[in-house]
């Protein structure tokens, strides 16, 4: 029984894999530069990179962005259960082959309003805004599942293949509402703070439909919910007229997470059928970032950022597994994840303005070493997401319009083993993905 519960525990992730770290992804100008923006104060969306940069903005303005996300994934999974009795090793093997999927999501990326004021002779900028921190595209795909049973002498006594088509409808996402303030302490120094409330309420409703001649369909329903208050502290220093640097610290989050998972077969079964309901106390990790921006000529800008999320400090205080038949508590468990490092490098060219209009070109490179779960002896290569970005902007009178395109390719591998009594469970998987994001933003000056 204990080994069975452990297998269920590892099979039900607390957080589904995000497409990539979207902590700063709503700033369209920065995304065109590979995401680099900690040392640059260009528009209100820069608050998510470094709130201190807001103090450099001298005019009241409103900005917004819409985004489209498209994903493609290819996945391979192998599970082996070794049943060891009196020294003999019986192997039950499951394998998922040719698992391909694609998904899409479109909606509002962010909206914000900023107002600069003068207090005690110092310039202060106040901002309120909303951003979509994470979205989960609807997806569809196909896979082939293999199952076989191997005797100790190597004889295959049972073998079947199960091809299926599947789709997943997602709902909700992770939203973030914030209020920020920044003050220009001196002509070369600005400080800022951003207080924001994160609310996660999202889930997935997936159906697998076997092809002709195979077993009945099944349905999986998952739902997650947690919320909490976070804060970011930032500093911006103008070292030279052509060189600026920035630094930001992002707080962690203590929050209770509620999770529901339901599996029913056939797919037409009642949604309230035998369900798994979980609750845990989550410590969302803190992080920090550093950036530098250099303008070698008035029309050119080079920017580079480094940021880290301290996932190795995250933890689950208590994991409770609720079921129709039993209620079992697990002791405190660590995420066991590695810290996530992200590097961003970008370039920008501003065509000389004619006094009323101006156009801008941007390009950049993004590379992230994503966290990986190490619980239960899981070992693997740290997932790498990397890719190129491009963007363009056009200023006309009191309006600014920007577009950016980012395409990331990811690859990850993992393997782990659980040993309990007469059972050894071995798991191995690999995944390749491609994510494309397109953002379009507008800014209107009110002064």
Spans of at least 5 consecutive residues with low confidence = 1-21, 316-335, 374-379
Oligomeric state of this protein: single chain
Radius of gyration: 25 Å
Topology as H/E string?
HHEEEEEEEEEEEEEEEEEEEEE
What is the CATH superfamily?
Answer: Outer membrane protein transport protein (OMPP1/FadL/TodX)
State mean pLDDT (0 to 100 scale). 77
- Class derived from helix and strand content: mainly beta
Main attributes of the structure:
single chain, 447 residues, mainly beta, Porin, 21-stranded antiparallel sheet, 2 helices, 21 strands, 67% strand, elongated, disordered N terminus
Can you characterise this structure?
The structure is a single chain. The model is unreliable at 1-21, 316-335 and 374-379 (pLDDT under 50). The N and C termini lie far apart (68 Å). This protein has helices at residues 2-11, 28-32, and strands at 61-85, 88-119, 122-134, 138-150, 156-186, 189-210, 218-240, 243-250, 253-264, 275-284, 287-294, 300-309, 315-316, 319-322, 327-330, 333-334, 340-350, 357-369, 384-396, 399-420, 423-445. It has one domain (2-445): Beta Barrel (Porin), CATH 2.40.160.60. The chain has a 21-stranded antiparallel β-sheet that branches. It is mainly beta.
Write the topology of this structure.
Layout lengths: L1 H10 L16 H5 L28 E25 L2 E32 L2 E13 L3 E13 L5 E31 L2 E22 L7 E23 L2 E8 L2 E12 L10 E10 L2 E8 L5 E10 L5 E2 L2 E4 L4 E4 L2 E2 L5 E11 L6 E13 L14 E13 L2 E22 L2 E23 L2
């Amino acid at each position: 029984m204990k080994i069975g519960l452990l297998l269920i525990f590892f099979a039900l992730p607390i957080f589904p894999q995000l497409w990539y770290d979207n902590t700063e992804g709503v700033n369209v100008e920065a995304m065109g530069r590979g995401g680099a923006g900690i040392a640059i104060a260009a528009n209100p969306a820069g608050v998510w990179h470094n709130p201190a940069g807001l103090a450099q903005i001298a005019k009241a303005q409103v900005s917004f962005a819409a985004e489209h996300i498209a994903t493609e994934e290819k996945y391979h999974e192998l599970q082996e259960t070794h049943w060891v009795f009196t020294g003999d090793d019986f192997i039950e093997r499951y394998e998922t082959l040719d698992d391909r999927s694609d998904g899409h999501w479109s909606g509002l990326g962010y909206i914000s309003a900023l107002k600069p004021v003068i207090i005690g002779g110092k310039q202060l900028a106040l901002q309120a805004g909303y951003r979509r921190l994470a979205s989960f595209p609807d997806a569809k795909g196909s896979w082939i599942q293999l199952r076989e049973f191997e005797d100790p002498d190597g004889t295959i006594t049972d073998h079947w293949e199960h091809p299926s088509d599947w789709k997943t409808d997602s709902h909700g996402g992770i939203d973030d509402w914030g209020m920020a303030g920044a003050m220009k302490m001196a002509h070369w120094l600005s400080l800022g703070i951003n207080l924001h409330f994160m609310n996660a309420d999202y889930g997935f409703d997936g159906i697998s439909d076997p092809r002709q001649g195979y077993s009945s369909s099944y349905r999986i329903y998952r739902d997650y919910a947690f919320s909490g208050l976070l804060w970011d502290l930032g500093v911006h220093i103008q070292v030279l007229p052509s060189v600026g640097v920035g630094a930001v610290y992002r707080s962690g989050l203590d929050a209770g997470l509620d999770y529901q998972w339901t599996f029913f077969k056939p797919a037409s079964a009642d949604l309230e059928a035998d369900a798994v309901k979980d609750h845990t106390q989550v410590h969302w990790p803190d992080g920090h970032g550093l950036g530098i921006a250099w303008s070698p000529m008035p029309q050119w800008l080079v920017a580079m950022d480094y940021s880290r999320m301290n996932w190795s400090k995250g933890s689950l205080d208590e994991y409770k597994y609720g079921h129709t038949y039993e209620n079992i508590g697990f002791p405190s468990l660590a995420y066991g994840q590695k810290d996530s490092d992200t590097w961003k490098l970008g370039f920008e060219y501003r065509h000389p303005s004619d006094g009323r209009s101006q156009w801008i070109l941007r390009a950049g490179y993004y590379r992230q070493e994503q966290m990986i779960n190490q619980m239960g002896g899981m070992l693997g290569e740290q997932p790498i997401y990397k890719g190129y970005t491009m963007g363009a902007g056009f200023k006309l009178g009191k309006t600014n319009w920007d577009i950016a395109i980012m395409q990331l390719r990811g690859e990850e591998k993992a393997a782990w083993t659980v040993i309990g009594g007469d059972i050894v469970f071995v798991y191995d998987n690999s995944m390749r993905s491609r994510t494309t994001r397109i953002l379009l933003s507008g800014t209107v000056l009110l002064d």
